Amino acid sequence: MSTSPTTPEHAPAPPRDQRGVSLGEWGVTAGILAIGIVTLLDGLGQATSTSASGVGAGFMPKVVGVLLIALSVALGIQVARGKRGEADAAEGDVDVRSTKWVPLAVCTGSVLIFIAGVDTLGYIIVSALAFWLTAWALGARSHLKSAVIAIVLSVVVYLVFTHALGISLAAGVLEGVL
Amino acid sequence: MSGWEGLLHGLSVAVTPENLLFALIGTIVGTLIGVLPGIGPALTIALLLPMTYGLEPAAAFIMFAGIYYGAMYGGSTTAILLKTPGESGSVITAIDGNKMARKGRGAAALATAAIGSFIAGTIATLLLAFFAPWMVEVAIKLGAQDYFALMVVAFLTVSALVGSSPVRGLVSMALGLTVGLVGLDFQSGQQRLTFGQVSLLDGIDTVVLIVALFAMGEVLYVAAHQTTSRFDIMPVRKGKRWMSREDWRRAWRPWLRGTSIGFPLGVIPAGGSEIPTFLSYTLERKLSKRREEFGHGAIEGVAGPEAANNANAAGTLVPLLTLGIPTSATAAVILVAFQQYGIQPGPQLLDTQSALVWGLIASLLIANVILLGLNLPLIGLWVKILKIPKPYLFAGIMVFALLGTYAVNGSAFDVGVLLFFGVAGYLMRRFGFPVSPMIVGAILGPLAEVQLRRALDIAGGDVTTLVSTPFTIVVYLTLAAVLLGGFLMRRSARNDTLPAAAHDDEVPDVRESSHR
């Protein structure tokens, strides 16, 4: 087992990957710039304050917005000079030089299903689906076993929360069954 | 109330059969969750917050004490057996701890960590009890501008000294400040960054933010970049004596030295357990006669940093309880827990909620004893928990992240917020932005804004009021020195630590940790 070296001096990655990483870095930098601009505009759009100091709701957004814009410029300079972020290796066994888009999309999708379906389908179904999909995305290959765990876990959580803790979770289509 | 009286008072609160039971449950659950790979103390507490909703505040905080120390202990177990530290404070432990485990000395490494945590935790908690009342004396004399100065210190040290790149740390902190802005302005009631969404008027729930950044971000990160869907666990050999006489002889000094490094660095409102653990490791290496063993399983390299990490964790409670300033992600979560009960930590806390605070501090001592009694015999059980297959573990984290978020308000919108910040958490991990400055920024930001605007309102808008007291001047000058010193120290700590590890691919790159 080896924690993947991610810095260029450790292991020169193929040029194509490097360009991908670089693109990602630029994307993140642009995102931070955009958040900074939105925050600054929000601050500028606030009504003038009537407080004793004249410092009102708009002050902090302006400060934070300018700070974010300045930091995105500083980050852009670093990226342009080839200084990249060192990805988190505290998890062990990760390699950021390649991205597995399918598992990433499946995990994200399972949350979207949860959001879309929790009120209509009910907690148990969407929660079990989220478990099953995430387990599959992370490499579980025993589909039946995953499904059993997913359903048992969701039902137990539902019963404990609604009956023991008195916190209601959406029953959805299973209303009346449980 | 002096430290002694306070502690006795606290013990009288905590030592009832019922509260001892809560401490025991907290300790067990905290260890249980904390031992899971990738779940650090901050996330453990955030995920377990709903468990305490139905409890009286005193009982809840007694349970928190157990959860907190249990999660800390669980984290070092994962670092040693799995080399998956899960939080930056255990990154150093993972270097030599995992090497020891590889050499079949896993039990000794775990015992060193457990006993070191106990010693450091006990000493540091006692120091906390004596420091807190003294700190309150100082704190009640402070004005709004003084508080603001201390918060600026917390912001800058947390972001600039944590992680690999000061710029990225600052970006993370600034993003946290942005999140803290969302909602209604506390003074004028004007909407900020709500984009017309009614659900955003109350701001972004900090528990949702924490769960998103830590849990969801982690699941996505592992899903996208894992190289294997199995864990590589070091077995702990049965029947092997955990620590030899030789081990004790080598470990006791590092325990004490680690404690004396960790606690003071936690007390000053400057964040991060990275620096104390680095410093302790470097110091032990310098003092050791077996310098060549470091990086290959030197017991001092586990004993010192583990003690420093635990003493540091207790130290961060001093600014949290007396000033209301959180300087680590874990302290930020505890602050949120206080806020959930309508309690705002600060100088008045020891007076108004003395039973609660002293009960909490006394419970930390009790939790420490429970942990020592529980963990040495139960190491085998914790190792079994590590054997949960990785896909199920992360699927479980996903389900509990969804549950924790959805259960708070029964709102699908909150789950959308969870996904949004989960993706943000993934990108931050992927591109080397530390996560905890964002959490500290989001929680401390609104508090700092209150102090800033209060100070300016009192002074009629005169900005020089921010540096008008001797206290503020001293604080800002010290901050400048600390930032410079921390930067230099970190550089030398790296240079000292890395050569030992650099030639060995199996040692985690200590620079690549994110703080959690």
TrEMBL record, chain B:
Transmembrane segments: 20-49, 61-82, 107-135, 147-163, 169-186, 198-224, 317-338, 358-383, 395-428, 471-489
UniProt key word Lipoprotein: no
Residue span(s) of domain DUF112: 20-439
Keywords on record: Membrane, Transmembrane, Transmembrane helix
Domain of life where this protein originates: Bacteria
PANTHER family: TRICARBOXYLIC TRANSPORT PROTEIN
Name of the protein described by the UniProt record: Tripartite tricarboxylate transporter TctA
